UniProtKB/TrEMBL annotation:
It comes from the Bacteria. It holds the Pfam family Acetyltransf_3. This is GNAT family N-acetyltransferase. Residues 18-185 form the N-acetyltransferase domain.
Length: 223
């Protein structure tokens, strides 16, 4: 079975309203359709990689190719876990976390998007919270980072709400103009400083090697 060779396929993270996991091919097509219907107001440009500027058909194809590409390039030293978020059994967006040399650095960086029709209900915050639980509680992360354009109020608010602290400014070029992003960092200490909603993780056993760590108890002990 595929899960014998790729145990991350069986990983599931459940929060009060959501389930985060890898999708089937049919579910991947469905979340691509969500992206095609819109991720943000057309006048906004919240991503440094301007994939949402693409026409709907190409936008959907980008989501599919990005998912396949990240799985195909995965190594224990450099991985990107792209989890689809399911609400009431249907895909609503993607929550990812990425790491380089996680077994040594114990640091992840995350990104996400959620369909426009599902925004404004706290689901984006819950997606990130579920991902952070996986990182800190199960994989033994010592810090998590995130980055948003300085005018992306909703994303900045999620980071602040979850306890991230400012971690400097990054300047990049988008469409020939300089754009500034606010970096944020959430330490393990600040993660535990707040009471969090319940999250459960299943299917992690057997995945540790792919994340570049030993067993779960070793992951927790090294953090």
């Amino acid at each position: 079975m595929l899960i014998d060779h790729w145990p991350v396929k069986g990983l599931s993270v459940r929060s009060p309203c959501l389930e985060l996991r890898l999708p089937s091919e049919e579910e991947l097509a469905e979340v691509a359709d969500v992206a095609a219907r819109g991720v943000h107001d057309p006048k906004d440009r919240p991503f440094l990689t301007p994939w949402t500027d693409l026409p709907p058909t190409e936008r959907a194809r980008y989501v599919v190719q990005q998912h396949w590409s990240r799985l195909g390039r995965w190594t224990p030293q450099n991985w990107a876990l792209e989890l689809v978020a399911f609400f009431e059994g249907r895909p609503i967006g993607v929550q990812d976390m990425r790491a380089v040399d996680f077994g040594i650095r114990r640091e992840i960086v995350s990104g996400s998007w959620i369909g426009l029709n599902h925004q404004g209900r706290g689901l984006g915050t819950e997606m990130r919270l579920a991902m952070l639980h996986l990182a800190f509680e199960e994989l033994g992360a010592v810090s998590a980072t995130s980055m948003s354009f300085t005018d992306n109020i909703s994303s900045l608010s999620v980071s602040r709400k979850l306890g991230y602290r400012p971690d400097g400014i990054t300047r990049d070029v988008l469409h020939g103009k300089v754009v500034e992003s606010q970096r944020f960092r959430l330490s393990r200490k600040d993660w535990y400083a707040q009471e969090r909603p319940p999250v459960t993780v299943s299917g992690l056993t057997g995945c540790e090697e792919l994340f570049g760590i030993g067993g779960r108890e070793q992951a927790r002990g090294m953090a």
